[in-house]
Amino acid sequence: MSGDGLAFAVVFEIAFALGAGATKGFTGLWPSVLTLLAAAGGTFTLGRALTTLDVGVGYTLWTGLGSVGTVVLGAVTYREEITVPKLFSFAAITAGAVTLKLAAGA
């Protein structure tokens, strides 16, 4: 469950982050329930993926790709602005994650 499991973990991470914005401080029942389920799903699938990936590589990919996905989908969902500094940050995160994965031979 290395690559596939990590991909699911990233999707759950993005759902968790976007869901947290929809909970209104965890005062809305169903958005809160879905957000907590996404957090649990992300933690579970990350843990499964880490059985075949180095912890540093897996965690970095999970948080990095989750961050990029959250900003991109946050722009779509919540109409947040994507600025030039954000674009450079995406590139740096992506390059760092890819380089780390290649360096680990994963």
From TrEMBL:
Indicate where this protein resides in the cell: Cell membrane
Any Pfam family hit: Multi_Drug_Res
Q: Which UniProt keywords apply?
A: Cell membrane, Membrane, Transmembrane, Transmembrane helix, Transport
Q: Which SUPFAM superfamilies match?
A: Multidrug resistance efflux transporter EmrE
Which is one Gene Ontology cellular component term of this protein? plasma membrane
UniProt-listed InterPro entries? EmrE-like, Small_drug/metabolite_transptr, Small_multidrug_res
Q: Which organism is it from?
A: Streptomyces caatingaensis
Q: What protein name applies here? A: Molecular chaperone
Family indicated by similarity: Belongs to the drug/metabolite transporter (DMT) superfamily. Small multidrug resistance (SMR) (TC 2.A.7.1) family.
* Regions crossing the membrane: 29-47, 59-78, 84-104
* Gene Ontology molecular function: any one: transmembrane transporter activity
Per the UniProt record, the lineage of the source organism begins with: Bacteria, Bacillati, Actinomycetota, Actinomycetes, Kitasatosporales
The membrane topology noted for this protein in its Swiss-Prot or TrEMBL record is: Multi-pass membrane protein
The protein's superkingdom reads Bacteria
